[in-house]
């Protein structure tokens, strides 16, 4: 439960910081990408419930890819899905997801 709270507070605080400092989409892309890379491992390995892990991982992908999609104006379904799949793959590799037991 501690890691879930840390994860949610970190994402909420990063959104507040991005709005407070009026980050442009290019800056927000780097900021949220770096944050997602830092949070990928704890989300994958510190949360014991599989369903909660997958939900938090999907949320991390959506939050991290949002500024990138807005910066390049990828509002259609197919380009957005491709970008989110690429982000999911990168975060899966960064979080060493293959080492977790997914049973």
Outline of this structure?
The chain has 103 residues and is mainly alpha-helical. It has helices at 2-20, 25-45, 50-71, 77-94.
Description:
With 103 residues, the protein is mainly α. Helices cover 78% and strands 0% of the residues. α1 (2-20) runs antiparallel to α2, α2 (25-45) packs across α4 (77-94) and α3 (50-71) packs across α4. The protein starts with a helix and ends in a 9-residue tail after the last helix. The mean pLDDT is 90.
Mean pLDDT: 90
In DSSP terms (H or I, runs of 4 or more residues), the helix count works out at 4
- N- to C-terminal distance: 20 Å
Rg, alpha carbons: 14 Å
Are there runs of 5+ residues with pLDDT below 50, and where?
none
What is the tally of beta strands? 0
Which class do the helix and strand fractions yield?
mainly alpha
| Overall geometry | globular
Helix content: over 70%
The SSE string, one letter per element, is HHHH
Strand fraction band? under 5%
Largest sheet, described in full?
none
């Amino acid at each position: 439960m501690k890691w879930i709270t840390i994860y949610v507070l970190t994402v909420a605080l990063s959104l507040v910081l991005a709005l407070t400092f009026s980050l442009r989409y290019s800056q927000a892309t780097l900021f949220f990408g770096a944050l997602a890379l830092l949070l990928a491992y704890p989300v994958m390995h510190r949360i014991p419930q599989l369903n909660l892990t997958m939900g938090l991982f999907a949320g991390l992908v959506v939050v991290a890819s949002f500024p990138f999609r807005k910066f390049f104006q990828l509002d259609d379904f197919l380009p957005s899905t491709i970008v989110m799949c690429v982000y999911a793959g990168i975060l899966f590799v960064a979080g060493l997801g293959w080492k977790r037991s997914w049973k």
